[in-house]
Amino acid sequence: MSIDTEVKVPLASPAAAGGTPSRPRRRSRGRIVVSAVAYLITFVILFPLLWIVLLSFQTNDNILNDPFSLSSLTLANYQQALETLNLLVMYKNTLILAVVSVTVGLVISYMAAFALTRMVFRSGRRRTQNTLRFYFLAGLAIPVYILLFPVYRLDIAFGLFGTYFALILPYIAVTIPFNILLLTGFLRDFPEEIEQAAVMDGVGLWRMAWKVVFPLMRPVIATLAILNVIYVWNEFPFAVTLINDPNMTTVSLGVSQFQGVYSVNYGAMMASATLVLLPQLAIYAAFQKQVIAGMTAGAVR
Amino acid sequence: MNWLTTRRHFTLMVAPALIIYSLYMIYPILYSLYYSFTNFDGVSAGGFAGLDNYRQMGQDDAFWTSMRNTGIILGIALFLLIPLGFLLAILLSGRVKGSGAMRALVFAPAIIAPILVGLIWIFILDPKIGLVNAFLLAIGVPAHPQWIGGPTLSPYSIGFVYLWQQIGFVLTIFYAGLRMLPRDVMEASSLDGASRWQQLRHIQIPMMRETFGIVTALVVTGVFKVFELVYALTGGGPVHLSEVMVSYMYHITFTTQQYGYGMALAVVVFVVGALASAATFLGNRRKGEVR
To answer: Where is this region: Disordered (chain A) (predicted)?
Structure first.
């Protein structure tokens, strides 16, 4: 009942509003204030992003001397950014790293999670599975920064330095614990009847894992894929440690070099930042619901 | 099921993940631990140094500064980020028009690469070209503080940028928690004439204890991962005054190539971070018992 009156009050005629004491009017005024505050805060939070985009169309002189006038519109910054930077190389490298490490990482995480939850030894004991699950989940507590130098040494020892695999292997390793956490959680609740029916039909292990169970796990896999791609896309510590070849530069590593590339041309620097920022925001806008759901699922689980 | 039971099949399924994970996650931890007790210089194993590296930390001012700065960022996260995130969640969970879109917009900074976040904020905080000081100049304030790059303000600025980056994420978790509260309690209380403030104080906040625990745990672990912001905004300077624990460890290891000392710092970062998280979890559990 209270909900109904609250919703109707602002729509009610002045006569009706006069009938009830000042309370509803105060409420609606309160709501205007609350809305205004909410809009203002949202604007303030988004402002830094808008500011970069706005200034990326200004001449360098204008940025330095009169940043608030926003007068001299120009595309020169973008021209210079595209000429100076190897944006395409950066995007290509990051895309290769993301596709390979996320695909391989999810495949092997799924295989391990399947074995840890759905496979039972003849003895019926689950000790091996439980120990291994704990061993994998312990990785959630490991900060990547500890890994940087040892992984650098490993990549040199294996002759991987300077190849994509120098980054792909650690990216896979770092995402395994969380992938296994979520996958084993969902696989444990998976109804056994479907498996049993498939066994009756003579389905083998491999087909069982990939043709019967995997399709039913698609929503979780999609969530993990999005989270893993975001991780690889934004990853910086490994990239800065393990890449020294300009042709191997990733997007985040490229961003860190903008300051050096244009020591004084701030307009071009902002244009470059915009060129990296906008695709990322566009992809976020497209997958916004899944990204938020995935991030919070990760947080709450 | 019996048909799945051979050890060979089980091993084949687990092996790929197990090998990569052991080699790139577990082995490095043991490696760091071992070399933190040596004078490893990157070429030869170096002599066994016992606890020398750890003793060195006691005399290393830059290390203590980095610890203090991590503490400052942690303080900003606990006392500003979490309350503000909660308030914003309350604000955007009401019947404000477009609150769904606003929640999505405010979340955006959390998915932008942290290194790009750092670069963007240079244009706002830089003493010469930054927006804040340009604004102060425009409205006639004579002081132009060195938000970044100066001797004192940098860690606070970094903490503030971290707040900006994370607030949408924190808001979203609080919002999810708010939505899980039973509706009838709120309705009953407003029928009983409880004010919005009373509802917040006596119903919503107490019932959200678990959500507060989750957010605190995430924020505490997140603070120990701040690295790119420092790297982009100040590079740790001037003279290591804005360094955080992780960035200082990175500097010692990769710039000055004192690998043994760097590994000791890595171990300490791990231990301090783990202790802070453990404290958060224990704190949550104790609060839960009082109830």
So the answer is: 1-26
